[in-house]
Amino acid sequence: MVRRKFIDYDMRDDFSFPVYVDNELTDFEGIKGLSPNSRVAGQFTRKDGETYLELASVPLKKGFEKSKVNYDFENHILSDEDDHDWYASTWDGNILFVLHKYMRTGYTDSFAHNHLHEPTTRWRVFDFKIVSQFMLASGIYEAKLYMDHLHSWVATYRPNLDLTKLKSMEFSNLKFQGVKFSLIIIGESRKTTNVNMVSKVANTCIRLDFDTEQDENFVYRLSVVIRNMLQVILNKRVAISRIILNRNYSYNQAKKMLLPKDERENWFLEQSFFPKDVDQAKENFEIPFDKIKDKFQEILEVYLLDEKLQSLVYAYLSIDHFKIPLSTSIITLVSGVESYYNKAKYSNGNLIKDAGEKLKRFISLLDNPEHILRANYDGQIVSVEELLIRLRDSRDYFVHGSKKEKFSSEADLIPDLMMFKVLYREILTRLILLEVPKNNN
Question: What is the pTM of this model?
């Protein structure tokens, strides 16, 4: 059986490894590792998108390591804020981990919990990386993003093709929050084996190449903005299932030898939106990539610079990302429109302050919104003007308690919310694809 590579694990995988853990690295003739004198045994487990560490020890704050355990917890490490990164290795040393964000969730002083007759602690890990060695880059110069439905949507890279001879699609000179980078859509292939057969699998990912090294916060913000844009275009629930940072420089071509320079990091982190499953049985797309490929460079350039549109997209997606009450959904969507038009003016130069007027301007981006609703709701005839008034009045009631006489029940608003979401997404799609001019000035 072929051993699984550390970069092949993704955030939907379940696994459990016996590990050694330490909060310091030791230098072994130029190689960083865990010292047999200070490492502690544990079990590192990921299940259903959550990661836990069982540790046969009670880690103490710096300066108290040699003292006896203080049972009032004052000297205990309770989270990463009391220490720094932790390092872990499977017992055979084949897989390494760097733990960035963690919090203690359990403690017992019973000797019965482990063979070392020591207290045991349980930790929830929110942010960690799987690596092949601990000598890593100080910043991020490259990030590969693997997203649900991306491979089927791009529909270019197939297992029977020689992907080494197939050009990647590069979109360069992009800017996000003042940082220049390139976005490359690339195809990858790998072989999978079992007892009876060898098969070849193709995949598609997005690679981000930065002109200057960036930190993790920036890379994740950019990744989410790109994911959100694709989620609107694809009209599917798109999760980021794997993030691979940096590159493998371990092979020295001149010396024909391997060096400890594999700087790749397989990044696992808690995401606010991460569906456990992905349905790829029917991969039909209203807007195939091939239809917009020629103007995808311009789409990216404009969208990545438009923070207001990004916020509007986030407001729309948050309704589906998080299971929130109907009242909160209406508040979120209407407030998103208000924020998008917070600098909008009438033809006389006065600012538009009324939420109803902003909603009208938003809907005016569609030529025939009634027709769109009829197509989506079995020919129903709906007055969009009355729909907007009900949404505005309901938002005012939920937020301010005003217009109570115009509010009947939340149940009556369910169809309104459903129809508004259809129009909202249609407008977002047209704005992202540059099919309509912006009117929020």
Answer: 0.91
